[in-house]
Structures are given as C-alpha cells and as structure tokens.
Design a protein that fits this description.
The chain has 208 residues and is mainly α. It has 10 helices and no strands. The chain folds into 2 domains: 129 residues, Alpha Horseshoe (Serine Threonine Protein Phosphatase 5, Tetratricopeptide repeat), CATH 1.25.40; 56 residues, no CATH class. Helix 2 runs antiparallel to helix 3 and helix 6 runs antiparallel to helix 7.
Length: 208
C-alpha cells in the first residue's frame, strides 16, 4: 500500500511538473483549439443558413411562370449563392422558360452558365442535355454533338445516347446513329418504355 501511495505521489509530481513547465504552450493550444472550434461552428452555421435561403429562393423560382419574375429571382440566387446546387438548377429552369418563349439566345446563355457553375456532374449533364436539345432544334447538329458528348453522368447515359443517335441520324451518319441508339436501348431495356421507342429508331434507320 505504501508503495502504491509513493507511486501516486511521484505521478502527481510528474504531472504537476509537466503542466508547470508547459503552461504557456498548453494555454496557447487550448486557445487555438477554442478559436478553431468557434470559427468552424460559425462557418457551418453560415453555410447552413446560405443553403436554407438558396433553397427558399429556388422553390419560389419553380413556382414562377413569368420570365421577368424568374429572371430577378435567378439573378439574386446567382449573385448570392452561386456555389450552391440551387443556382445552377435555377439557371436551367430559366433556360427552359426562355426556350419555351423562343428566346433561344438567352436560353443558350442560361444553360451554359449552369454547365460552367454546376457543382455536381448530374446538374452539368442536365444542362448539357438541355443545351443539346436547344442546338438540335436550331439545326446546329455539329455543336449539339459536342455538347451532348460532354454529358458525363451515368444517370444520363440513355438520354445522352438517344440524343446523339438523333443528331448523327440528322446529318446522315447512320452507323454512328445506330451505335448510340443501341447503347440507349441497352440502358433502357427492361427498365423503361423508352426502350421500345429507341428500338423503333434502330429499326427505321436506312428505311427513309
């Protein structure tokens, strides 16, 4: 028992001596940790606030059918929350409104903004897909092919290759069209009725 008490006393003395010798360093690192903790908590809180406000704006945009009203909200979202997913999604939504109103130049700009600023491949792929459709509608198949080829999200594999099939078909590159339609067909097979539509396209190649 006496041995244990002596060991405890020695340990306490060593701990006390350690803290005495390293007091300034311990205080410094404690303050540093405290500052880091407060700063990181503040940063997380501000980010959460930003995403909440961006989400609220995006919901308002989705309920807007008037282009001029949507423009103001989308511009506000881009200016204040450009790094969020909501900004690029909103730009695609606005592009669709422009497209619907046949304002193709502004639609083009909106889709390109989303492509360049989207933080996720799924969103940039959607923007490229919409841009490809827009260019196809304007009979600019060559540029539409470049845009559609840039789609890199696996979830868009079917849409991408179906669009590429249409584009190559429109310029008479039938074997390229067949190849892309086949990829789209395999993607949709046993998953969607779109497989039937793509199969009809494959079967019709060269019949016109």
């Amino acid at each position: 028992m006496a041995l244990d008490l002596n060991e405890d006393k020695d340990l306490n003395e060593k701990v006390s001596d350690f803290f005495s010798k390293n007091k300034k360093n311990i205080i410094f690192y404690f303050i540093l940790f405290l500052v880091f903790y407060i700063a990181s908590t503040f940063y997380i809180t501000q980010n959460e606030k930003k995403y909440f406000l961006a989400s609220d704006l995006y919901q308002k945009i989705q309920l807007t059918r008037v282009v001029t009203d949507a423009e103001g909200l989308v511009n506000e979202l881009k200016e204040n929350y450009s790094k969020t997913t909501y900004a690029s999604r909103a730009s695609i939504y606005l592009g669709n409104l422009y497209f619907k109103n046949k304002d193709f130049s502004k639609a083009n700009e909106s889709y390109k903004w989303a492509v360049e600023n989207a933080p996720e491949s799924s969103i940039s792929s959607l923007a490229n897909y919409q841009l490809g459709i827009l260019l196809f509608s304007q009979k600019d198949s060559e540029n539409a092919i470049l845009v559609a080829s840039a789609i890199n999200d696996n979830g868009f594999k079917g849409l991408k290759n179906n669009l590429l099939g249409d584009l190559f078909n429109s310029i008479g590159k039938l074997e390229d069209a067949r190849k892309h339609y086949q990829v789209a067909y395999e993607f949709y097979k046993d998953k969607s009725d779109l497989a039937k539509v793509v199969k009809l396209k494959i079967d019709s190649i060269g019949q016109n």
